[in-house]
From TrEMBL:
Keywords: Membrane, Transmembrane, Transmembrane helix
Transmembrane segments: 35-58, 65-85, 91-112, 124-148, 154-175, 187-206, 212-232, 244-273, 285-306, 318-336, 342-359, 389-407, 427-446
Keyword Transmembrane: yes
Name of this protein: MFS transporter
Species per Swiss-Prot/TrEMBL record: Bifidobacterium colobi
Domain Major facilitator superfamily (MFS) profile: 1-450
Annotated coiled-coil segments of the chain: none
Domain of life, per lineage: Bacteria
Length: 467
């Protein structure tokens, strides 16, 4: 698993390191903030388009071959970005990196279900979660240091070096644990998947910059309609691109919804908190980044611990504990003001960073454990796709609520921009808290299974039916 773990770490590191580079890209290429944001949107768009196809690709292509292809794409993309003479070339390299991440992320979880026995699934997911959560901890710090010492191009050069390490580890150690069934290729489903998920992710990602403009509304409408057709087709063809029957299994569907809600809460909080520290409390970006480091480190450690605790205690108790902690931390975030002591922020951030892993890791392990082995790849793909789409929507909602809160503050005569930003942030924190309440409510529907479920074929007596 080493090659896959490094690959996913690389993808998450790339995803969380870009925000800090945007001002430098704007200066070097003479572009606006809206254009520069495509470094983030384009990456998410590539992931959203590729993710739904991975389960199908794993049924046709050896997992090892697919991972090596993805890593070579990432390496080429990183090299292109390092030497990019203009922004379009840079964006093309960035999209190649997104394609790679969209492949390796669900492949890692599908491989975990094949490599590890059921009683170690939680621990394996804990390691995977540690890898994923460690990237946001060090990503902004590394990116800031490289920009200060060299330039933004050094970040992509570092990505290229790590990609080479991942390629070597994958080539030497990774096995192909996923059987290939080689189903029929449904071209119409592939096209519908690319258009539907692409339009939906692009639409929700652009709301914060463009509002509900005709273009955004058009993308959202097309995305929803095409995805409805896509879902109908997957449930009515013999060889679906993505086996959506997994969502018909309550033991999988419930934790999948919980994962999406907790992930959305995390993105909403982490979108608001750094900005509030700077624009609401008047701190510098350097200080804001340092203040978020302790919570990030604790989050990574708790992610690892939560995976191991799942094997011992199951999902429900861990979700209850995680929900309670996240609600307490979210309430503390809500109470932050322009003159709040830093210690309150640290407490709020650390409490949330402890609570979220207990929700996400236990829910993810419960979801994957509920599926038959042959549906593991599809289940992993479904969960990761739901997280990307719901995360993009949550960020857009948090942005809109932030603006609404600022507008309401100004409407009643408020003139302090810092206090207006704090008021707007509180609207977003309430949204995050509402998502955690949904998680807590869903936890009562969790069904724990100790043995791997099996798909039981249904035998139909055709002669009796005809009679």
């Amino acid at each position: 698993m080493l090659g896959l773990y490094i690959s996913v770490f690389l993808g998450m590191l790339s995803e969380t390191s870009m925000n800090i580079t945007l001002p430098d890209l704007m200066n070097d290429f003479g572009i606006s903030s809206g254009v520069a944001q495509w470094m983030v949107v384009g990456y998410m768009l590539a992931i959203g388009v590729v993710l739904p196809c991975v389960g199908f690709m794993l049924k046709w292509i050896k997992a090892k071959t697919l991972v090596l292809f993805a890593l070579v794409c990432f390496l080429i993309g990183a090299v292109i970005c390092t030497i990019a003479p203009n922004f379009p070339v840079l964006l093309a390299g960035r999209i190649m990196q997104g394609i790679s991440t969209g492949i390796v992320l669900p492949t890692m979880y599908a491989a975990i279900m094949r490599v590890f026995p059921l009683h170690k699934i939680g621990a394996a997911n804990g390691v995977a979660g540690l890898v994923i959560m460690f990237a946001p901890v060090i990503g902004p710090t590394i990116a800031g240091a490289l920009i200060g010492a060299l330039s933004w191009r050094a970040i992509f050069a570092l990505f290229a070096i790590v990609a080479v390490v991942a390629i070597v580890c994958t080539a030497l150690f990774f096995v192909t644990p996923i059987e290939r069934t080689r189903p029929n290729v449904d071209v119409l489903s592939i096209i519908a998947s690319a258009i539907g998920f692409g339009c939906l992710v692009a639409g929700v990602s652009l709301i914060s910059d463009m509002g509900f403009s005709p273009m955004v509304i058009g993308l959202l409408v097309i995305g929803v309609l095409v995805l409805a057709f896509y879902a109908y087709r997957q449930l009515h063809i013999t060889d679906p691109l993505l086996d959506l029957r997994a969502l018909g299994i309550a033991a999988f569907r419930t934790p999948a919804i919980m994962i999406s809600c907790s992930f959305s809460c995390t993105l909403a909080f982490m979108y608001l908190v750094p900005q509030e520290l700077q624009r609401g409390m008047g701190l510098s970006s350097t200080v804001a980044g340092l203040l978020m480091l302790p919570g990030g480190v604790i989050n990574a450690l708790c992610t690892f611990a939560a995976g191991r605790m799942f094997d011992r205690y199951g999902a429900k108790k861990l979700v209850w504990a995680g929900s309670a902690l996240t609600i307490i931390g979210g309430a503390l975030f809500y109470s932050i003001g322009v003159s709040t002591p830093i210690i309150l922020f640290l407490a709020a951030h650390i409490i949330v960073m402890i609570g979220i892993p207990f929700i996400q890791q236990s829910s993810q392990s419960a979801a994957l454990k509920s599926l038959p082995g042959q549906m593991a790849a599809d289940g992993s793909t479904i969960m990761n796709t739901m997280q990307q789409v719901c995360g993009a929507i949550a960020t857009a909602v948090a942005t809109c609520l932030l603006g609404l809160g600022q507008t309401n503050y100004a409407a009643v005569g408020g003139e302090n921009p810092a206090q207006g930003f704090v008021n707007g942030s509180r609207y977003g924190y309430l949204f995050g808290l509402a998502l955690v309440v949904v998680v807590f409510a869903c936890s009562f529907l969790l069904k724990e299974r100790k043995e791997e479920p099996k798909l039981v074929p249904v035998h139909v007596d055709i002669e009796k039916l005809a009679a």
